Amino acid sequence: FPVTISTPNARMPLHVAAHQIIRLEALSNYSRVYFANGRNMVVAKTLGWFQQQLPADLFVRVHRSHVVNRTYVKEITGGFGKQLVLNSGDSVLVSRRKRNLIRAIA
Q1: What phi, psi does 37 have (nearest 5°)?
Q2: What is the widest separation between alpha-carbon atoms in the chain?
Q3: pTM to 2 decimals?
Q4: How many whole angstroms from its chain centre is CA 13?
Q5: Sign of CA dihedral 44, 48, 3, 106
């Protein structure tokens, strides 16, 4: 499932397979995309745009500022699903309203 990502100053858009994206982080009207190869990139798209483009069965919005690829979730910590630890070693906070959703995917 390829996603086309345009960077703010890019001459050519980047085509990325959805499974290569670990997570996305909101930065106002931009998003930081974290890739499986360890790199990240800031793009001029909102998290809402990415949610519409990416497969809903693979990506879940766990916080107002985070969308996570379910396949990269290593563990859920902090009691009541307060935090996700990803295979990359990153930790992502889970909002109170999304905790039931996270427990369902565990």
Answers
A1: -80, 5
A2: 46
A3: 0.86
A4: 19
A5: positive
